[in-house]
Design brief:
It holds the Pfam family BKACE. Keywords: Metal-binding, Transferase, Zinc. There is one protein chain. By secondary structure, the chain is an alpha/beta fold. The protein has one domain: TIM Barrel (Alpha-Beta Barrel). It is about 35% helix and about 15% strand. The strands form three sheets. Strands 1-2-3-4-7-8-9-10 form an eight-stranded parallel β-barrel, surrounded by eight helices. A two-stranded antiparallel sheet has the order 5-6. Helix 7 (about 175-185) links the parallel strand 7 (about 165-170) and strand 8. The radius of gyration is 18 Å and the shape is globular. The relative contact order is 0.19.
Length: about 300
């Protein structure tokens, strides 16, 4: 509890589709503006995906990331975190390509394979603005998000050689044991930034008891060598991340994870979600980490050593 709280903001992701919210950033200009606003509101880490500007479909090409990464870096001091999860149906080489080429301070790393079912979101699409949206969502009923030991090791070795640290995305308790396995092999070094994710159908559910179980398991496996962060999907976002912060962890918000600011109220921006959790945390007498304080807590290489 002595450390400050790192707020991560996940700007757009690859789950929500453009028809779900008019506020979801899609173009490079929108992603840039949303990232800067989120940083100004208090986010120390900005987690980034890219999309095709015309269709809004997830796009993992390094060139697409380069349309906004340098601009965000020039206008904010936040840590920029590039996804290696990409979007549904992408190969591991496609998913790793932007981080390998651009060598960010932090990249996400999914810590195991699992069913990733977001097909229920298709029910909210009455008249999709893009023809790909409904099929993309419904196809997830038959999706295994592949993160085999071979794939994880490939990402750890290739990105670790470039000094990139990881946001270890753990969707279930077994993923914590997978991380401990790779730590025992010496492929990753502490401090481990462990993002525990709750509420995706096919992974661990969004129950408070599950957060306690994930934390106690991580405590046992990693002791003082890790930084807990909590991600709650959809309506579970603010209750779970507030609980995580009270337990001494860090928090993640953003339109990748949840399109709403409150019940029935679409979030006008990522920054509004950052401002809301910041207000909650400060009311609890918790201090918010600056980007440089987050760098010290996570042991990143610094913004001068990235390739963008």
């Amino acid at each position: 509890m002595a450390d400050k709280v790192i707020i991560t903001c996940a700007i757009t992701g690859s789950i929500h589709t453009p028809s779900m919210s008019p506020h979801l950033p899609v173009t490079a200009d929108q992603i840039t503006a949303a990232s800067i606003e989120a940083a100004e509101a208090g986010a120390a880490v900005i987690h980034l995906h890219a999309r095709h500007p015309d269709t809004g479909r997830p796009d993992q090409s390094p060139a697409r990331f380069m349309e906004f990464l340098p601009r965000i870096k020039q206008q904010t001091n936040a840590i920029l975190n590039i996804t290696t999860g990409g979007g549904m149906g992408m190969s591991i080489d496609e998913r790793l390509a932007p981080a390998l080429q651009l060598e960010p301070e932090v990249a996400s790393m999914n810590m195991g394979s699992f069913n990733f079912n977001i097909s229920g979101a298709a029910r909210a699409l009455k008249e999709p603005s893009q023809p790909w949206e409904r099929q993309y969502l419904e196809a997830s009923k038959d999706l295994i998000l592949s993160n085999t030991f071979t794939q994880i090791e490939k990402g750890m070795r290739s990105l670790g050689d470039k000094g990139t640290r990881f946001e270890f995305e753990c969707y279930d308790v077994g993923h914590l044991y997978n991380l401990a396995h790779f730590a025992d092999l010496g492929l990753v070094k502490p401090p481990f930034f462990v993002q525990c994710i709750f509420g995706i159908l096919g992974a661990i559910g969004p129950d408070p008891e599950n957060l306690m179980f994930m934390k106690s398991t991580a405590d046992r496996l990693f002791g003082k060598d890790y930084r807990l962060s909590v991600l709650g999907a959809g309506r579970h976002q603010f209750p779970l991340i507030t609980m995580g912060a009270i337990l001494g962890g860090n928090v993640r918000v953003g339109l990748e994870d949840n399109l709403y600011l409150g019940k029935g109220q679409l979030a006008p921006s990522n920054a509004d979600q950052v401002s809301k959790i910041r207000r909650i945390l400060e009311e609890l007498s918790l201090e918010i980490a600056t980007p440089d304080e987050a760098r010290a807590m996570l042991g990143t290489k610094g913004p001068d050593l990235v390739k963008f």
